[in-house]
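Researcher: Checking consistency across runs. Here is GNAT family N-acetyltransferase again:
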Amino acid sequence: MLTLQGKHMYLRALEPEDLDFIYTIENDESIWELSSTQTPYSRYLIKQYLENAHKDIYEVKQLRLVIANENHESIGLIDLFDCDFKNKRAGIGILIYSKSDRQQGFGNEALKLLMSYAKTHLDLHQLFCNISEDNIMSLNLFESNGFIKIGLKKDWNYVNGSYKNEYFLQRIFN
């Protein structure tokens, strides 16, 4: 089982016991904008997903890890997606689910851990992310970790009856 230990939290592989946590997150309409989700997920589909979560990152081109606090409570998720090992790049996304757990340093620590893992263990050259123009907390998090705004995608996402711009950010490792 993959575990990446931080000072106040750790990242771990998905487990069957994460079914309720993943189900809650994937079916929370208030955050669908972050993942471009448009329909709810059944427990059955999430159970199938968890049963296949052990597959190799090189096969499925993604890695999803749980962010857990010092009390071993699941507080969020962090993902590598669209892994392109030929060009040594991947997308990265993070979610701290409960508002009370946000701005506590968990996201920053999780991002640093996964960035280090991506560079040293996966030999990636760069990471990228897409963040809504109005998601100031996420923009600050990624920019404080060396991500640079590369471009602004105009009217990129249609959310609640209007279009939103989205930034494309990139972090190139030296």
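Researcher: Does this match what you'd expect to see?
Model: One thing to look at in this run: The mean pLDDT is 92.
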